Amino acid sequence: MSNAYGRFAEYYDLLGWNVFARNASIRLRSFFKLRRLKPEIILDLACGTGELEKQLRKTGIKFVGVDASPSMLQAARRKNSGVKFRLGDAAGIRLNRQFDMVLLLFDSANHMRSLKHLHRVFANARRHLKKDGFFIFDFISERGLEEWEQINIKRTRQYTLFYYGHYYHETMSSDIFIEAFIKKNGKYYDRIFQKIVERTYLNSDIIDGLTESGFSKILVSPYDYGDEIENASRYWFVCS
Ligand SMILES: C[S@@+](CC[C@H](N)C(=O)[O-])C[C@H]1O[C@@H](n2cnc3c(N)ncnc32)[C@H](O)[C@@H]1O
């Protein structure tokens, strides 16, 4: 199993990478309210450090989290005693039960190694979903990956963080580099360096995969309310 998020897992939350899941938990709560849903159990594919579980289990929802990185799961378990976490590939894992909702959040769909692999994840989400359940994920568009083409620097008392990406039009993929220096014992710095590859596809290819997997209602909206549907940086898919 890949451990791409090896040492990065240790500092993922500290460096602010858990903020997406925090915001997503608020968005999901509104969704539950609007649709009058009371999900009992959710499958969180590519759950990372389990921030979503931490935010939503207070509401009584049970979770099973799946991730391909042992280090991310270690962090998730530390934060969420009593929640089940399983090591596995989102496309291949079989849990032999069905859920009220399946999630795949924060670029996780862009992490899958090919369109075929992503389609297998969709089929697996459908397999694990109750008949009237929802599969929800976000997806970064080509424009979104292009926006990584700049050096971002964040400096706090505890760390200095750099991240930047390079987008390849031919393969519609991006190499993203994350480098951080984290203060240890007030004196020394721990350095981490993480390369992540993210891929994007046309929304029509995504929708084909969802349809083939048995989803009949697919709602796509820009993730950021200010963006236009034709050229949003990130999309929010709600499928049933
Ligand atoms: C950017 S993180 C998102 C984690 C979490 N969902 C969040 O919101 O913080 C992407 C996660 O996808 C996981 N991942 C990548 N490929 C995967 C796969 N094929 N199956 C399961 N997890 C995968 C990585 O290990 C990592 O934890």
What's the level 1 CATH class of the largest domain?
Answer: Alpha Beta
Total tally of structural domains: 2
The main β sheet shows up as: 7 strands, mixed
* Beta fraction: 25-35%
Shape: globular
Overall mean confidence score, pLDDT: 95
Please tally the β strands and state the result: 11
Residue share in helix: 25-40%
Helix-strand sequence: HHEHEHEEHEHEEEEHEE
Please report the number of helical segments: 7
* Residue windows where pLDDT falls under 50 for at least 5 positions: none
SS-based class: alpha/beta
What is the correct CATH architecture of the largest domain? 3-Layer(aba) Sandwich
End-to-end gap: 30 Å
Report the C-alpha radius of gyration, rounded.
18 Å
Please give a structural write-up:
- This protein is an alpha/beta fold and 240 residues long.
- It has two domains: 8-142 and 202-239, Vaccinia Virus protein VP39 (Rossmann fold), CATH 3.40.50.150; 144-198, N-terminal domain of TfIIb (Single Sheet).
- The chain is 27% helix and 34% strand.
- The strands form two sheets. Strands 3-2-1-4-5-11-10 form a seven-stranded mixed β-sheet, with helices on both faces. Strands 6-7-8-9 form a four-stranded antiparallel β-sheet.
- β7 and β8 (173-184) form a beta hairpin.
- α5 (115-127) crosses α7.
- The longest helix has 16 residues, at 19-34.
- The model has no long low-confidence stretch (mean pLDDT 95).
- Bound molecules: S-adenosylmethionine.
- The site of S-adenosylmethionine has 21 residues, from α2 and β2.
